[in-house]
Amino acid sequence: MSGREGGKKKPLKAPKKESKDMDENDLAFKQKQKEAQKALEAAKQKAAQKGPLVGGGIKKSGKK
Length: 64
Prior knowledge:
By secondary structure, this protein is an all-alpha fold.
């Protein structure tokens, strides 16, 4: 064993990812996802303004 071969070997470099051109279907899908995300955020804010939906739950009698 010579000094050059010892130790870890460097991993091979991964090939660079090509920039993918987006067609109309991809753009429409991304736009639809953004709109769905905005609608979900709006629904969360609207739900947070109101109080809890259920006021009761399981009530304990206090007897042991």
